[in-house]
């Protein structure tokens, strides 16, 4: 059976090459842990879920975790609704911070715990002196291939005497210092390398707001009152046992791509995320089975993501880039 799965995964990854930000290439470990399962009274699944959530908490550096069925966007909207209040600073980086801004505005309108919102470009953070209750932002803004180190956001948090919420969708597992945040949301299928459909909120302190809509109430997810992302969690079980072997493939591919594209980079190493890279040239695919990332941002170059060889683990050598050409 194991050989059959390996052959199937090899065949599927050969048919299609991904340069997108998630999910990663198909992993045999995604499939080998799948089983019929249920959220109550299923001891086999409960063991898997307990171990997976424990590992994710370790990666996040937080104390508590809620698992939800849906995209990272759903986790983030639940996070915003249940945790953020008062005066909120949103750090403007691109398409995904625009989404956070929309979520905060909507929460302010419907739940009224958020009283004031400031949406300020990351370039202007040093000029901010007023106090905030919460800061929220994307450490990795995929749409422009840009990173703000979480340590910098933590320094801002301390200076403004605020709490820090993260859209960790593109940073979890691949960037350091998530433990410096107070709450974060992310999905199963990007830096964790699981199948799509699982979302997570990790936090230290209990949520502040009382949210009435059933699906937006964090307590309902913590108490598992609805179907959870059972198979997404199963798909993470074997991966998280040897997580560093899989994340190695992303980081080595990033390193190789930076070297290949050193003359076409938009940012210094300080602002380079592991997940993806923005180059100031258009990238084209050599064949039709190459899936390029189409950023929602208005950029003149291309964003290339580095999850396409995760299945190779420590054998990854960046050969996938032979499928790309500069326009």
From the structure above, extract its key features:
single chain; alpha/beta; Aspartate Aminotransferase, domain 1; Aspartate Aminotransferase, domain 2; 34% helix; 20% strand
Regions with little confidence, pLDDT below 50 for 5+ residues: none
Task: Determine the number of helices (DSSP H or I, runs of at least 4 residues).
Answer: 9
**What characterizes the major β-sheet?**
7 strands, mixed
Q: Biggest sheet: strands side by side, in what order?
A: 2-10-9-8-5-3-4
Q: How large a portion of the residues is in β-strands, by DSSP E?
A: 15-25%
- How big is the Rg? 20 Å
Number of domains: 2
CATH topology-level name of the largest domain: Aspartate Aminotransferase, domain 2
Query: Percentage of helical residues?
Result: 25-40%
Q: So what's the overall shape? A: globular
Calculate the mean pLDDT score and round it. Answer: 97
Which series of helices and strands comes N to C? HEHHEHEHEEEEHEEEHHHEEEEE
CATH architecture classification of the largest domain: 3-Layer(aba) Sandwich
Total strand segments: 15
Computed structural class: alpha/beta
* Cα separation of the termini: 44 Å
- The CATH superfamily of the largest domain appears as Type I PLP-dependent aspartate aminotransferase-like (Major domain)
Supply the CATH class of the largest domain.
Answer: Alpha Beta
């Amino acid at each position: 059976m194991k050989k059959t799965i390996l052959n199937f995964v090899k065949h599927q990854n050969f048919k299609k090459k991904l340069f997108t930000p998630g999910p990663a290439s198909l992993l045999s470990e995604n499939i080998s842990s799948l089983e019929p399962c249920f959220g109550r009274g299923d001891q086999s699944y409960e063991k898997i879920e307990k171990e997976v959530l424990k590992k994710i908490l370790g990666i996040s550096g937080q104390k508590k975790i809620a698992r939800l069925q849906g995209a990272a966007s759903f986790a983030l909207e639940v996070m915003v609704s249940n945790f953020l209040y008062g005066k909120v600073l949103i750090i403007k980086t691109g398409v995904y911070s625009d989404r956070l801004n929309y979520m905060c505005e909507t929460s302010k309108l419907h739940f009224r715990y958020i009283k004031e919102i400031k949406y300020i470009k990351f370039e202007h953070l040093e000029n901010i002196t007023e106090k905030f209750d919460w800061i929220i932002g994307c450490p990795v803004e995929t749409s422009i291939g840009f990173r703000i180190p979480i340590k910098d956001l933590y320094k801002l948090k301390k200076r403004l005497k605020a709490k820090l919420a993260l859209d960790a969708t593109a940073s979890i597992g691949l960037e350091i210092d998530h433990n410096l945040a107070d709450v974060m949301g992310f999905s199963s299928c990007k830096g964790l390398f699981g199948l799509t459909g699982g979302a997570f909120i990790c936090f230290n302190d209990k949520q502040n707001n009382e949210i009435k809509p059933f699906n937006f109430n964090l307590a309902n997810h913590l108490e598992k009152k609805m179907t959870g992302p059972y198979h997404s969690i199963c798909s993470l079980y074997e991966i998280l046992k040897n997580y560093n072997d899989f994340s190695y493939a992303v980081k080595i591919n990033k390193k190789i791509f930076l070297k290949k594209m050193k003359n076409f980079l938009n940012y210094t190493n300080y602002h380079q995320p592991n997940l993806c890279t923005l180059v100031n040239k258009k990238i084209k695919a050599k064949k039709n089975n190459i899936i390029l990332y189409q950023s929602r941002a208005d950029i003149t170059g291309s964003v290339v993501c580095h999850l396409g060889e995760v299945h190779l683990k420590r054998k990854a050598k960046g050969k996938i880039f032979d499928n790309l050409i500069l326009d």
